[in-house]
Amino acid sequence: MFELMSIRNFLLSGIIFFCALVLGYIFILDKPSIDDPIAYLYFSYGLLGFFPLLWFFFQFKKQKIASVVYTKGFIQQIPIVLLLIVILFSFSSGTVWLTDYILSFIIPDYVEESFVEEDLNGMQFLLSAIQSCVIGATAEEFIFRGLLLKRLASKTTVLMGAILSSLLFGIIHYDIIGSFVFGFIMSILYLKSGNLLLPITIHILYNTAVTFLPDITNITTISDLHTYMIPNLIMLLISVLILTMYIKRNIKNISSSEIKIFQNRKSML
Question: Is 35 exposed, middle or buried (0-12, 13-18, 19+ CB in 10 A)?
Fold first, then answer.
């Protein structure tokens, strides 16, 4: 399945697709401004929508794989899915607060600018939300918990594959720490269940909560970072404790997962 796919092929195909998007951006869209929200939608739908959809479709067709998501046993997993969403949301909110708090002493102007919400009209916001909450979340799970996790694990160990793929996942997001932990927890969940539907569901619901729910940290200015320090710190510490317990309880499943899904160790990177 994913372990038989090539990261090199994915990257080269992605570069070619990106070049095609750039040409379309320049010539078809008549050179719109890079600050135009349409530009963001254009590239995000292309790179985290159409490209991975097409690439994985042909990979699955080549391997004659019908599906990597399964509904069997999903109902029984709903409680842990909901719990992880709440805890990860709290942890990420806490790490964002902590990051902004530290940066406010170093680059306050950058932090102040991060509080300014992007001005989108109704249709642009809807398209952006669909991309972020559904299309992008699904594509990222196929890329990071599917392709990268399996291939990196086949080159190193399952645990190292989970760490490295989660680190790459964190680097492409604003909240590096929160995203790294999110990716690692999703890796554990996928390796335990063998069902990509679980991390996809959590990712979709998590991004939906971030997009539509009010900011639970109550942070809109730099002064708020100091005013609401105690509640955010408490929220962060509690979520760290629960996530640490979850990881310790399930880390053995990661360490002992050198099973048949990683037996094929052909050099395809």
Answer: exposed
Question: The pTM is what?
Answer: 0.89
Instruction: Give every CB contact of residue 160 below 8 A, 6+ residues apart in sequence.
Output: 152, 153
**Which ranges of the chain would DSSP assign to H, the alpha helix?**
7-23, 37-45, 51-63, 78-103, 108-114, 122-130, 137-140, 149-155, 158-171, 176-193, 197-212, 222-227, 229-255
Tokens standing for residue 206 = 């998590």
Measured CA to CA in angstroms, residue 49 lies from 52, 124, 256, 267 at distances of 6, 16, 34, 28
Q: What is the pLDDT of residues 57-116, one digit of tens each?
A: 999 988 888 778 888 888 898 999 999 999 999 999 999 999 999 999 999 888 888 877
Q: In whole angstroms, what is the distance from residue 42 CA to residue 186 CA?
A: 28
Whole-number Å distance between alpha carbons of 208 and 74: 20
